[in-house]
Structures are given as C-alpha cells and as structure tokens.
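Lab notebook page, bench 4
Experiment: in silico fold of construct C2
Operator: M.H.
Input chain length: 161 residues
Purpose: comparison with the prior construct
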Amino acid sequence: MLKRPAKSSVAGAEAAGLWLRNIQLGMFALPLAALTMLMNDGEQLRSYGMLHGFNSIVWMVVLLNGCGGLLVAATMKYADNIVKCFAAALAIICGMLLSVPIFQLELEPIFLIGATLTVSASVLYSRQPTLSWSALGCSGRSVTVVADEERPLCSSSGPGS
C-alpha cells in the first residue's frame, strides 16, 4: 500500500522533497493569482486592502485548506493511487453524513448503496494478504509471477542458489 520514496534518475542527485515541490508550485502560481486578483478586484484592493474582511473563521478555513494540501501531497508521495481514491471517496461519504444533521439533508437509497460498496471495497483492499516470498521457497531469489501458475516461479540467479 505504501510506495518507496522517489529516487532521482540522475546519479548523485537526490529527488526533490515534499516541501520543495510545494514551494515550487506556490512560486509558479503566485504571480498568476496576483495578476488575476488585480484584474478582477483592483479598485476594491486599492480602497480596502488585500485582507479586508478576514476574521478568525476565514483564517481557520485557510489553515485547513493548507493542511489539506499537504496531506494530499503526502498521500501522493507515500501511498498508491488506489489508496488516494479510497480516501477521497471516504471523505465524500463523511462529508455527506455530516451534512445530514447540519443541513437536515435526507439520504437517498442510492447513496446508502454506494457508501456501503465504497466502505466494503476499502476494507477488502486494506485486508489483502501480504505475500511472503520465504514461505513460497523464493527467499533471496528473483520472482516471476505467471498468471496461469498457482505459485510464482523462482529463478536461481539470486543469493542462496
């Protein structure tokens, strides 16, 4: 379920870290966002300033969005795409379930069926058995999995052959 950390394809160079990638993306987006802000709201910015109307609730939303972005980046770096999709689906389900008491929404039967299937798939994926190569007699050897075979084929090119 977890991926190995990315390695650089250039010999001697390390892969860029999570923080560096976030800073690179931010520096690319900042000028575009500033230009759009000036074009759309230039008069209001000159009159009231850029942070007019920001209160504690708005700052809390900004903080939550920033943390959410870091969590997405960490998920993409350390987990596989299936886990990311399951996390997004479970977040939608949790948001919908929270909307029931907050906004008095009524759940449709199709949502309950979809939520049940999503949670079931997440549980099944997380409970997948781990494959022990030593239990298959392939300890320290390279393994070739053949779709028609019941067991992987072990080559004798590794250590211990």
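Observations: The chain has a mean pLDDT of 79. The first strand starts at residue 143 and ends at 144.
Next step: discuss at group meeting.
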